[in-house]
């Protein structure tokens, strides 16, 4: 099944035009909140537009995960946790619509109210809100959750808490956040933090919990069973308090969501072929075209769904750690990008079917324009021009090879840049003036066979410039431990980006988080221009300025040559059992957390 839609430009223009300048916020409590203007859905909406309010309940979805896990607490830094758990367990005041750039609607909160300039935000808890053990969700639970997550929780929660001047109870079921900085996104971020049960953690070290404590939350699913490293089973709570909340109507339809873990991609795929798994996302187009013809597909028991989306490409590739002396010189990073023969690799891996990622926000209206910076983008970058890497203002594009295996032009360009940086080939080995060989380690996660195949071809290309890297393969726990500590030279990197970039960009690329253990700035970006562009997009009061700030940020990051980009996925490919159904009205974010399994159902 293939569906087409074209809503992104309209959605962005409406959301921005409805009130970028009109930060004049709400004068009274509302059912929802948008980054700019008003949310699209009215107060009396029945369900999200991409949910089926008449979907039947029952059945299960089973997915294959590569790797392992040693923790069930997705709200702390310690441990390797199934990535889906924070979305299943983390119920919050509000929930995000996948059909708008950035709009939230009440879940635990029956209403939201903000100050005139969003200098504060106030939420009122629903009286009927309950944890899975039947106890009520209280203001005390709310305040404990925010303080705990903001001080000893996962780094993703820490930045927000530093911008909260005060958190106070203003009514029996009402709390108010007052902020210490000008940042209109904070009012929305305040609505997206998970609310946990305070009493569960009395006498327990929250930051050190692994599998011995399963967090109690108010979400539709609870962890019913698990075996470390093997599987996690989540069961729909039949007594879930919020089944009639409009945001939840038509969601959480499946009785069981089961995550099965396998040692590598081959074993995971074989499990899907024989029916042990009933839904599988495929990221390799060559495999999709050549290996999805097994009997279950031919018999119609497995459906192949192609799902378009209109979100940015994000960045996927291999990140270079600029904390290492070797990668601090942009010319070295540029050389390694030239040596990466993308066109040859793409042909080998996908039959040249996948376009290359050209920038962090490519495939969206927020992506940088080709050629020299102009207009507001140029104005924003001008104060930093003396320190920006060449190409940022003048224009930068990734090198394109002739597709042949030898990649003579790319090899020559790489050697020229390395020589400019003080590295020359002597006796077939790239070395500096002291005779120290140029070498580095590439860190991969165990079981990632596609990445291993790409790196094998890259290693052969590097040999042509006298470089022999080592390739380290780590299991899930080791991989997380090393990336949390930034203990790598080059590493596989994937960062999804949205149509409404905000405070999370500081965690992705901000200077202050670059050396914070467990952060997401794997490249170690420390750029005043990056910090300033993030600040601008958070405080813009016009549509033009917001878009220009993102385009400028995209330029600085892309021309910074921090990542060797590979191909992008402008569509999603999901193979699934014929009994698993989804609504035909796809959201603009497409296949994204909040869509599968959230709005899917099982129908015999």
Please tell me about this protein's structure:
The structure is a single chain. The radius of gyration is 24 Å and the shape is globular. The two termini are 18 Å apart. It contains 17 helices and 23 strands. The strands form 7 sheets. A 5-stranded mixed β-sheet has the order 18-17-19-14-20. A 4-stranded mixed β-sheet has the order 2-11-10-9, covered by helices on one side. The chain has helices at 8-17, 85-89, 139-152, 155-162, 186-189, 265-273, 285-291, 295-298, 330-339, 342-350, 375-381, 408-420, 449-463, 476-484, 504-509, 528-539, 543-559; strands spanning 32-34, 60-66, 94-96, 103-106, 109-114, 120-125, 164-171, 174-179, 221-227, 231-236, 256-262, 279-281, 302-308, 315-320, 424-426, 429-431, 441-445, 470-474, 490-495, 563-565, 571-577, 580-581, 601-602. The chain is α+β, with helices and mostly antiparallel strands and 604 residues long.
Q: What is shown here, in short?
A:
By secondary structure, the chain is α+β, with helices and mostly antiparallel strands. The protein has helices spanning 8-17, 85-89, 139-152, 155-162, 186-189, 265-273, 285-291, 295-298, 330-339, 342-350, 375-381, 408-420, 449-463, 476-484, 504-509, 528-539, 543-559, and strands spanning 32-34, 60-66, 94-96, 103-106, 109-114, 120-125, 164-171, 174-179, 221-227, 231-236, 256-262, 279-281, 302-308, 315-320, 424-426, 429-431, 441-445, 470-474, 490-495, 563-565, 571-577, 580-581, 601-602.
């Amino acid at each position: 099944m293939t569906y087409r839609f074209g809503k992104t430009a309209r959605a962005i223009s409406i959301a921005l035009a409805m009130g970028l300048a009109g930060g004049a916020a709400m004068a009274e409590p509302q059912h929802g909140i948008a980054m700019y203007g008003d949310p699209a859905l009215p107060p009396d909406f029945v369900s999200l537009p991409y949910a089926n309010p008449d979907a039947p309940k029952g059945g299960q979805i089973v997915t294959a995960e590569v790797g392992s896990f040693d923790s069930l607490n997705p709200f702390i830094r310690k441990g390797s946790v199934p990535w889906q758990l924070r979305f299943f367990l983390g119920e919050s005041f509000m929930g995000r619509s996948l059909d708008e750039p950035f709009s939230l609607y009440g879940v635990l909160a029956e209403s939201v109210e903000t100050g005139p300039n969003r200098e504060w935000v106030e939420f009122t808890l629903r009286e009927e809100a309950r944890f899975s053990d039947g106890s009520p969700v209280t203001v005390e639970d709310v305040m404990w959750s925010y303080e705990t997550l903001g001080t000893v929780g996962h780094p993703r929660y820490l930045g927000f808490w530093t911008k909260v001047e005060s958190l106070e109870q203003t009514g029996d079921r009402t709390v108010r956040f007052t902020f210490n900085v000008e940042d209109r996104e904070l009012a929305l971020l305040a609505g997206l933090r998970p609310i946990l049960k305070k009493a569960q953690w009395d006498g327990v070290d929250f930051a050190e919990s692994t599998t011995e404590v399963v967090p109690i939350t108010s979400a539709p699913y609870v962890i019913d069973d698990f075996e470390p490293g093997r599987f996690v089973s989540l069961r729909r709570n039949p007594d879930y308090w919020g089944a009639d909340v409009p945001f939840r109507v038509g969601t959480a339809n499946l009785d069981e969501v089961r995550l099965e873990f396998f040692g590598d991609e081959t074993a995971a795929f074989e499990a899907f072929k024989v029916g042990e798994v009933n839904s599988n996302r495929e990221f390799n187009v060559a495999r999709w075209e050549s290996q999805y013809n097994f009997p279950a597909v031919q018999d119609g028991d497995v459906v192949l769904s192609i799902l378009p989306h209109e979100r940015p490409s994000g960045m996927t590739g291999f990140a270079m750690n600029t904390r290492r002396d070797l990668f601090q010189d942009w010319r070295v990073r540029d050389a390694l990008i030239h040596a990466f023969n993308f066109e040859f690799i793409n042909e080998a891996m996908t039959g040249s079917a996948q376009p290359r990622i050209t920038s962090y926000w490519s495939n969206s209206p927020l992506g940088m324009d080709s050629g020299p910076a102009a207009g507001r983008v140029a104005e924003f970058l001008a104060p930093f021009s003396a320190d920006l890497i060449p190409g940022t203002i003048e224009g930068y594009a990734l090198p394109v090879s002739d597709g042949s295996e030898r990649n003579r032009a790319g090899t020559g360009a790489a050697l020229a840049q390395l020589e400019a940086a003080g590295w020359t080939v002597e006796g077939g080995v790239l070395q500096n003036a002291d005779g120290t060989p140029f070498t580095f380690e590439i860190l991969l996660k165990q079981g990632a066979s596609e990445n291993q195949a790409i790196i094998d071809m890259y290693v052969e290309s590097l040999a042509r410039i006298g470089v022999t890297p080592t390739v380290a393969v780590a299991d899930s726990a080791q991989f997380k431990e090393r990336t949390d500590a930034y203990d790598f030279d080059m590493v596989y990197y994937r960062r999804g980006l949205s149509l409404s970039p905000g405070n999370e960009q500081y965690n992705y690329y901000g200077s202050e988080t670059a050396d914070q253990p467990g952060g997401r700035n794997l490249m170690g970006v420390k750029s005043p221009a990056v910090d300033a562009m993030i600040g601008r997009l958070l405080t813009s009061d016009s549509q033009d300025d917001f878009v220009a700030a993102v385009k400028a940020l995209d330029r600085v990051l892309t021309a910074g040559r921090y990542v060797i980009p590979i191909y992008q996925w402008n569509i999603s490919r999901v193979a699934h059992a014929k009994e698993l159904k989804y609504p035909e009205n796809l959201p603009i974010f497409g296949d994204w957390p909040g869509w599968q399994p959230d709005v899917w159902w099982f129908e015999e």
